[in-house]
Design a protein that fits this description.
Largest sheet: 6 strands, mixed
Oligomer: single chain
Length: 335
């Protein structure tokens, strides 16, 4: 099958963008019914592999030219290979852990995000305008055929993983692997802040009852609630634990109408919740019958059952009712 260089470049760009968007969308997956998002991401990744044979002559031709920006193109290619390889290794379970003490999913996400600025630069530097004849019948059929082959390839890979009894067969719908204990994460600004081991740690609350400050002893004196919930991190792990603390709907007053409740961390990170979402949320101070560890969010962290790990705010210092609606925040973490 012959495909022009321009068409192969445009097709690869479209597929890579689909890979990036579906990868970000997979961070929102929480239920088995949403597994198709993760499946689509995997199929799109296999489609990239299928287009490499058409892109290879373009790459070889570009490397023979003397360009000052050639190094950036090489880095782009290397990161693409690493992102694809780490994704396959994680999904099959052939290598769950990678160099640096991080899971292969962490490297998959990191290399994928690193691709974004390089891909934007490459697209602008090698601009190729779409043409009307790019959507002729033959090209549409070929693109459709590639999509079918990618989906079939993903199904075949999943079948081989299950038939071979590989660890990937035990993944959750999100693609994460269950483990005995939560794993301390180091993503973005997720660093242990100063003062977490100090007895003077406080949580400020602002609601219709007015502002107040609760010390750890004050939280301990409130009615205790226990919740068994799975924390599922976007770096590829999950852990089911018994959490103990203060129910958020017992603590906050006046979060109704179009208002929302913001839970803030000492790092500056925060997530916003609608009033009807407070039921089940917990300000936890203990896990599995033991006080929380510092790297897991001690002395106080949010437990948000049914939500991915980036909703589970660690090192909580404030809970505030605000007039802004719950959707007034980035859908994914930006820090």
């Amino acid at each position: 099958m012959r495909v022009s260089r321009r068409v192969s470049n445009l097709a690869l760009l479209v597929v890579v963008v689909l890979v990036l968007l579906s990868g970000l969308a997979s961070w929102l997956v929480v239920a088995p019914a949403q597994r198709w998002v993760v499946a689509g991401h995997g199929a799109a990744g296999l489609a990239v592999l299928g287009l490499i044979r058409f892109k290879a002559p373009v790459v070889r031709s570009g490397l023979r030219r003397s360009r000052g920006s050639r190094w950036a193109s090489v880095v782009l290619a290397v990161l693409t290979v690493l992102a694809l390889a780490s994704g396959v290794l994680h999904s099959t379970g052939l290598a769950v852990w990678a160099p640096g003490g991080q899971r292969t999913m962490w490297w998959h996400v990191a290399t994928g995000l690193a691709l974004v600025p390089l891909l934007a630069w490459h697209t602008l530097a090698r601009r190729q305008r779409p043409r009307r004849d790019d959507l002729d019948r033959r090209i549409v059929l070929r693109v459709g055929g590639l999509g079918v082959l990618a989906a079939a390839g993903w199904l075949a890979l999943e079948g081989a993983v299950r038939a071979g009894g590989l660890p990937g067969a035990r993944r959750r719908p999100t693609g994460s692997y269950l483990q005995a204990l939560p794993q301390p994460t180091i993503w973005l600004a997720d660093r242990v802040p100063a003062g977490t081991d100090a007895p003077g740690w406080t949580v400020s609350v602002r609601d219709d009852d007015g502002p107040r400050t609760l010390a750890l002893a004050d939280l301990a004196a409130l009615p205790r609630t226990e919740v068994r919930a799975v924390i599922d991190c976007t770096s590829g792990w999950a852990s089911e634990q018994d959490w103990s603390g203060v129910a958020l709907d017992d603590l906050v007053r006046g979060a109704d109408g179009g208002r929302s409740v913001v839970v803030r961390s000492a790092t500056g990170y925060s997530r916003r919740f609608a009033p009807d979402e407070l039921d089940g949320l917990l300000l936890a101070t203990a896990m599995a019958g033991e006080p929380l560890r510092r790297r897991l969010g001690a002395p106080v962290r949010l437990v948000a059952p049914g939500r991915r790990g980036f909703w589970w705010v660690k090192w909580v210092v404030a809970v505030e009712v605000e007039d802004a609606p719950s959707w007034w925040q980035p859908p994914l973490p930006l820090q």
